[in-house]
Design goal:
Chain A has 258 residues and is mostly helical. Chain A has helices spanning 4-33, 40-50, 55-77, 86-124, 127-133, 138-176, 181-191, 194-221, 227-256. Chain A is elongated. Chain A starts with a helix and ends with a helix. Chain B folds into two domains: 1-31; 39-144, no CATH class. Helices cover 26% and strands 30% of the residues of chain B. In chain B, a hairpin with a 6-residue loop joins strand 5 and strand 6 (107-112). Classes of the chains: A mainly alpha (258), B alpha/beta (151).
Chain lengths: 258, 151
């Protein structure tokens, strides 16, 4: 019979060692980054799968989020007679917070899960073992291009999301609610600072991209070689990556004030 | 999809993303005004109201720069550092006044060029300044029937 106290201890150790395994995997990926050959074609392929195919999702979601922010911001601000500040409210909350975080969550669901499923299936069908037999390092050939592509693609998608959302806020605030277009853009432009807000936004997106890239490739790579293992890898990628994004977002904001 | 076609689509995607980054940096973030190489001058005010750093600096309503910092100087007056475009050629008797856009809107600094031939140099201070209008003081003066400056 399992002692409940030792069960807690076992769970804690299991959690810590899985954290350690992710870190080791991440350092393995990082070391492979500097090893020849450069997998340019593989990375390009991954940028296409993870980035290009996410653009429509990101752009439409961004537009919807911006529109609802414009609507909610307007109904709140109009109580204080401050609806001229709508551009500042929409812009700052998007650039500092919602752009990188929501893009991270959407890309996790759209692309992170497919990365984990793909690599998990390769594990289940022994393709990674096949690569090893041909003395091709599977981390270098499979995991690195996808993790790298995720890191490169996230800031670009986050910027596209933010611009579409600012446009969505513009459409609702100016076209529907009758604010002055110049006022919206002027309050947006005077309140957003390049160094404090925009750089922080890009930095956040890069960090989220690296986190999602590492977590999704690791979960695929370490999945059990059967159908249930692949499905568990996909689910846990979305869960772990989403929670990691939300928590690391708090710490990035608290530490660097962005 | 053919490989060369995929390259093209990836290229379009990267250009799209980079132009979104550029829009956020240059237009929204106003990077063109916070970079080095701008023309700096200081202005001292008795009262700055709700003026904040990054508030716009305008001439005839056209934005030419922004407020970079606000500090107290040795005489305990507010010293405001302005960063404006270097190509303006402002005369030495240019005056700076703190205005409000609308009744309760954001505050900004309006520069009014003077008539002198000598030009103001980088880092110099503006001698003619007009402080922010203090609405509470104005209303108080109106209620008590004295004139605005007589307190």
């Amino acid at each position: 019979m399992a002692n409940p106290i030792s069960e807690v201890g076992r769970q804690t150790l299991e959690m810590l060692s899985s954290f350690g395994r992710v870190t080791l995997f991440a350092s393995d990926v990082a070391r492979n980054l500097f090893r020849p050959p450069v997998r340019f074609g593989r990375t390009l392929e991954a940028i296409y799968d993870l980035g290009v195919l996410s653009v429509v999702l990101i752009a439409t979601s961004g537009f919807a989020v911006g529109a609802v922010l414009g609507l909610q911001g307007y109904t709140t601000l109009v109580r204080f007679g401050a609806e001229e500040s709508l551009g500042a409210v929409v812009g700052l909350s998007l650039i500092r917070e919602l752009g990188p975080v929501l893009t991270g969550l959407l890309v996790t669901g759209r692309a992170g899960s497919s990365v984990a499923a793909e690599i998990g299936t390769m594990v289940a069908t022994e393709q990674l073992d096949g690569l090893r037999m041909m003395s091709v390092n599977p981390v270098h050939f499979v995991a690195l291009p996808k993790a790298l592509a995720m890191t490169l693609v996230m800031p670009l998608l986050s910027a596209i999301f933010t611009v579409c959302a600012i446009f969505g806020g513009y459409v609702v605030g100016v076209e529907l609610l009758g604010l002055d277009g110049g006022t919206y853009l002027a309050s947006l432009e005077t309140s957003v600072d390049f160094r404090e807000d925009v750089v922080g936004s890009i930095l956040k997106a890069v960090i989220f991209g690296a986190l999602v890239g590492i977590i999704s490739t690791y979960r695929g790579y370490s999945s059990e070689p059967n159908a249930a293992g692949v499905s568990r890898a996909t689910t846990s990628t979305v869960v772990i990556a989403s929670v990691t994004i939300l928590f690391s977002d708090y710490f990035i904001t608290a530490l660097w004030g962005v | 999809m053919q490989s060369s076609q995929k390259d093209l689509v990836v290229g379009i995607f990267v250009m799209l993303g980079l132009s979104a980054v550029a829009y956020l940096s240059l237009e929204v973030g106003g990077m063109s005004y916070s970079g080095p190489g701008g023309f700096t001058m200081t202005a001292t005010f008795d009262e700055i109201g709700a003026l904040t750093p990054r508030a716009p600096v305008v001439i005839s309503g056209v934005k030419v720069g922004q407020v970079t910092s606000i500090n107290l100087d040795d005489d305990l007056r507010a010293k405001v550092v302005l960063d404006v475009r270097p190509d303006l050629e402002l005369s030495i008797d240019t005056s700076a006044s703190i205005r409000t856009s609308g009744l309760l809107g954001n505050q900004y600094i309006a520069l009014e060029p003077g008539g002198e031939i000598d030009l103001i140099q980088d880092g110099e201070s503006l001698d003619f300044t007009e402080s922010a209008l203090n609405l509470e003081k104005l209303i108080g003066a109106f209620i008590h029937g004295s004139d605005v400056e007589g307190d």
